[in-house]
Write a structure and sequence with these properties.
Radius of gyration of chain B: 15 Å
CATH superfamily of chain B: CheC-like
CATH class of chain B: Alpha Beta
CATH superfamily of chain A: Response regulator
Number of helices of chain B: 4
Strand order of the largest sheet of chain A: 2-1-3-4-5
Largest sheet of chain B: 8 strands, antiparallel
Helix content of chain B: 25-40%
Oligomer: heterodimer
CATH class of chain A: Alpha Beta
Largest interface: A-B, 22 and 24 residues
Strand content of chain A: 15-25%
Shape of chain B: globular
CATH architecture of chain B: 3-Layer(aba) Sandwich
Chain lengths: 123, 167
């Protein structure tokens, strides 16, 4: 399972990477913003993407729209401090499959990743 | 003091310290700050735009910042870049969590900036009142400060309202 982590905070990427590694995922690519993520998609084809919202250069919402506009269908999990219901709806409309609000526990992130992949497998 | 705007910042700080750091953050008495001088040596700063404008500052003494970041990242933050990244992310979570609790106010937050240096000054937006909330935790003391105003009315939030002042 290949995972693309998109977050401008190295600390947050490391925390998420630790959780993913414990889940048995070892093929993890990191990007520090939406533009960086788009540039990495040529050589790295993720099975799931974990994307922050507020980032410099290109925010997560713009990235997801760009990613979907190119016909990509892999699941996107938004991991963000944006907790308002209106934001969640905006993200889902843009093509986000599931949502985790920071702060989160390792158990919650793991649960959402498994839930997202299970939903996709069942579809 | 307008508790409707102070409480979201207290709750957000407590929740984030408890969930991400397993630390109990105890809030002291919020006060209106008179000078722009930051509370401590290292400050994470995030701006608000939208229905609410201004900024929130998370300020630590250096030793407390090092201890907090070691817990947050799982290792000593030997590089200043790593320390700034961790403080910035904590500020981001506090700002995001607090804004989600604002009633009937839609706001966006900026990416964090981090300033290091004793006696640095954070200038608040014109027309705002800066409220300082002191905190203590097992890693030491720190402070959350915010200076924000409602855009439509231009009313500084957090300051004592006439109604509150008479109570």
């Amino acid at each position: 399972m290949k995972v693309l982590l998109v977050d401008d905070s190295k600390t947050m990427r490391n925390i998420q990477k630790g959780i993913l590694t414990q889940m048995g995922y070892t093929e993890i690519e990191e990007a520090c913003d939406g533009l960086d993520a788009l540039s990495k998609l040529g050589s790295f084809q993720p099975d799931i993407l974990l994307v922050d919202w507020n980032m410099p250069n290109m925010d997560g919402l713009t990235f997801v729209k760009e990613y979907r506009s190119k016909g990509n269908k892999k699941p996107v999990l938004m991991v963000t401090t944006e907790a308002e219901k209106s934001r969640v709806i905006e993200a889902i409309k843009a093509g986000v499959n599931n949502y985790v609000v920071k702060p989160f526990t390792p158990d919650l992130l793991q649960q959402r990743i498994e839930e997202t992949l299970a939903r996709l497998a069942a579809a | 003091m307008d508790t409707n705007i102070v409480l979201p910042f207290i709750r957000a700080t407590r929740d984030i310290f408890e969930m991400m750091l397993q630390l109990e953050a105890e809030a002291g008495e919020p006060t209106v700050k008179q000078s722009g001088k930051a509370s401590h040596d290292i400050s994470g700063i995030i701006g608000f735009t939208g229905d609410v404008e201004g900024a929130v500052v998370l300020s630590f003494p250096e030793a407390t910042a090092q201890r907090v970041c070691a817990i947050f990242t799982g290792s000593e933050c030997a590089e200043q870049e790593d320390l700034c990244d961790a403080i910035g992310e904590l500020t981001n979570m506090i700002a995001g969590s607090a804004k989600a609790q604002f009633k009937d106010r839609k706001a966006s937050i900026s990416c964090p900036s981090v300033v290091i240096g004793a006696d640095h000054v954070v200038h608040s937006k014109k027309g705002t009142v800066c409220v300082q909330i002191p905190f203590t935790c097992d890693c030491g003391e720190f402070a959350v400060e915010f200076a924000i105003k409602n855009v439509d009315s231009g009313t500084p939030t957090g300051a004592a309202t006439p109604a509150a002042a008479t109570n």
